Amino acid sequence: MCGFTGFISASFSGDRAAIVASMASAIAHRGPDDSGYWADAISGVALAHQRLSILDTSPAGQQPMTSVCGRYVMVFNGEIYNHQELRRALQESHNIHDWRGHSDTETLLACINVWGFEKTLCATHGMFGIALWDKEENALYLARDRMGEKPLYYGWQGDTFLFGSELKALKAHPDFKCEIDRGALALYFRHNYVPAPYSIYKGILKLPAGSYIKVQATCFSNKGDLKPIPYWSLAAVAEQGSRNHFEGSEADALKELDVRLGSSVKAQMLSDVPLGGLLSGGIDSTMVCALMQSSSSRPVNTFTIGFNEKYYDEASHASAIAKHLGTSHTELYVTAQDALGLVPQMPTMYDEPFADSSQLPTHLVMKMARESVTVALSGDGADELFGGYNRYMYAPKVWRYAEKLPQSLRKAFCASLMAIPASSLNSLSSLFGLSQAGDKAHKLGQRLQGVNCLDDFYVALISEWSNEGGLVLDAQLPSNLIDIREEWPQVSNTVDRMMVLDGLHYLPDDILVKVDRAAMAVSLETRAPFLDHKLVEFAWQLPQKYKIHHGQGKYLLRLLLNRYVPQELTERPKMGFSIPLDDWLRGPLRDWAEDLLAEDRLKREGYLNPSPIRTAWRQHQAGKANYGYRLWSVLMFQAWLAEQQGSL
């Protein structure tokens, strides 16, 4: 997996090697097995690498790595699953046989030397962040994998160009300015994460998935904008798939899915170190673990997290599935005290404000898995590809009724829903066997206000706070995909549009960020077989009837899973990987939260308007509403800000 960093500055007068080494040490958790750096005073470039040894654990896999011809120097984070195939192609076409080792880093360098940078990217199957220095062109190339599994930040700070796998590496450079971007902060409060291409800091960007940039030496005189160059586009894949649907039968589609997903899982099980699977008990992780076990001659290691609160717990389901599959299964039950112990680590782990509360159990399951394995496969990405999120099913149904009401009646209806305390509605609904109906009613009331079409409703569903009331002081929302609808992918229907927007936005900037940081904090490599780009391209060719069928998502995936696991072990309502946050904020986390949300503190810091925050906090504590997830975004920013101020 690893991590890398570096900088270019013609005017920097310090010890480049010492500085870049200190930048790398800030992300030593990403690669504790080895480290290395390379610096060139003439060009002003410095590269550093932290290594987590997965393939070729010998010194032949050390980075930074120089190409055989001496032209290129590269640092690389990730895995290239087809690198042996690429080697064979080079051997057959260019008679290359003199390999120093068997690392995919060496394979990439050889491919770049023969095919060039972009053609090499297009030939890869994998996840990666790459920084390549071309001595001949005096240029730096930065690239990120197609779906955004691996992170890559870059940007100007004064006369210095910085880049790296995590922000903490960039912050270790003496030229870094910790200036918060209030526009990016407003986007964070809307989505609970800072969406690409922005970061929380002014001047620092995230490289979009499926793209690369070339930083020519001439750029350093004018510091012009560096426009990412796409070499693969999920939006284009979705548009093309929408126009050219798979024309085979359901049986043909099922067979193709079995082959493609099975091939992806098998390829991603390649490892020179212990490997396992993350098993939540849901459709996606069960499918991956079932295919892993079918490809293994010994029991696969599987891991799951459980909660004592029954509504949130899937551990018993995962245990039954593991028993059926014959895996070597480990489970850990999480308490509020476990979560409280983790909270102080979150600002450091995520570098910028990040408020997906499942970050807590995600990190705990990664930590547990790391005690036994170095690589773990997950089911991430299946929801966005096969129609798994509840909003894909329920949003169109709700809107069909809501759009029939005049705007005035719709507002009155929403107000009436929110007037009744969520706790009262929850208690009443439980008598009829319904769970959390009050919370769902309140969420519906909040999201339907001001909505004029289904696309509006989707945006409302993926938004937490609005900045219309001035939540973030002195902030203006920067240009972003969600607000520029003319740039939305042109697919055949609204649900497909939701799915591709989630794939472009929510998946790389929330789900994959959460998994990457939670795992790399304990030096665990995670892999997501559903995100193999050939499987992604196939999924987007499937007609929607193979994804959402009779109001249920993942239709084709469920049919495939039934071949491996009895249906009764997996068929139940989707739960998601959530925690009992509402109750914890009224109980064991209350004092910690009250300190961070104190009105005088918010005023003194000067970033947030205390009024809506304090109102939400009071209503939450009184049980009038469950605002745990809304408040969590404020708490994560406040905790992050406190950590920043302590480190400046």
Topology, please?
Blueprint: E1 3-8, H1 16-25, E2 34-40, E3 45-51, E4 65-66, E5 72-80, H2 83-94, H3 104-115, H4 117-123, E6 126-134, E7 139-144, E8 153-157, E9 160-164, H5 167-171, H6 182-191, E10 204-206, E11 211-216, H7 219-222, E12 229-230, H8 234-243, H9 250-268, E13 275-278, H10 283-294, E14 301-307, H11 315-325, E15 328-334, H12 336-342, H13 346-350, H14 359-370, E16 375-377, H15 382-386, H16 390-402, H17 407-419, H18 422-430, H19 437-448, H20 454-461, H21 494-504, H22 506-520, E17 525-527, H23 533-541, H24 555-561, H25 581-586, H26 590-596, H27 599-605, H28 610-622, H29 628-647
Parallel strand pairs: 13-14, 13-16, 14-15, 16-17
Antiparallel strand pairs: 1-3, 1-9, 2-3, 4-5, 5-6, 6-7, 7-11, 8-9, 8-10, 11-12
Helix pairs in contact: 2-3, 3-4, 8-23, 9-23, 9-24, 10-24, 14-22, 16-20, 17-19, 18-19, 21-22, 28-29
